Amino acid sequence: QQGELNSFLWTIRRDPPAYLFGTIHVPYTRVWDFIPNNSKAAFHASSSVYFELDLTDPYTISGLASCQMLPHGENLQDVLPRELYHRLKRHLDYIKLMLPHWMTPDQRGKGLYADYLFNAIAGNWERKRPVWVMLMVNSLTETDIRSRGVPVLDLYLAQEAERMKKKTGAVERVEEQCHPLNGLNFSQV
How far apart are CA 38 and CA 9, in angstroms? Predict the structure, then answer.
């Protein structure tokens, strides 16, 4: 029931009101029906919307991609224990083999190919820092693959905000996202 849903919406009482809404990085179709009407109404009523990062900005996307890379031309094979690296490689080979079976007919109908999808998600994985490879591997599940092509909630809301001609922006820079994760030592990862 709508009245029983926790909206994760905070209201800052001022004129006009301001709102803070907690989102999660999952395909919006998984959560949209569970977002209460008060949150959707606040979004529609707002003239400006600010996100964690501006996921519609190509510089943000390229900055996120470059921050994931190991420094000085290093490879993952240089920094991971040998057995762990080989287990990871075998797992990614398995994912690549399973990907065509996990894809939906709708994805295929949109011209999405398994090799393209694998490269979009895991391309250049041997050059990435371990923390980013861990996050990548966590997203390489059948459920996540089947929802590829559906924007995550943040991106969906940003696209909707742009479509509705709302002013948009970000409260963080790429560096503020990357440096804490890149600062984790190997045992923490």
Answer: 8
If one counts the domains in the chain, the total is 1
Q: What is the pLDDT along the chain (189 residues), one digit of tens a residue?
A: 555 556 678 888 999 888 888 877 888 988 898 888 889 999 999 999 999 999 888 999 999 999 999 999 899 999 999 999 999 999 999 999 999 999 999 888 887 788 988 998 998 999 999 999 999 999 899 988 988 888 889 999 999 999 999 999 999 999 998 999 998 887 887
Residues in the chain: 189
Q: Is residue 44 part of a domain?
A: yes
Structure tokens at 77: 């094979």
Burial degree of 101 (CB within 10 A; 0-12, 13-18, 19+): exposed
Residue at 3 is within a domain: no
Give helix 130-138 / helix 174-182 axis angle, nearest 10°. Answer: 100
Residue 100 counted as domain residue: yes
* Residue 136, domain member (yes or no): yes
Domain that holds residue 89: 9-183
Secondary structure class of 114 (helix, strand, coil): helix
Q: Check whether the bond before 16 is cis (ω within 30° of 0).
A: yes
- On whether the CB atoms of residues 23 and 58 are closer than 8 A, the answer is no
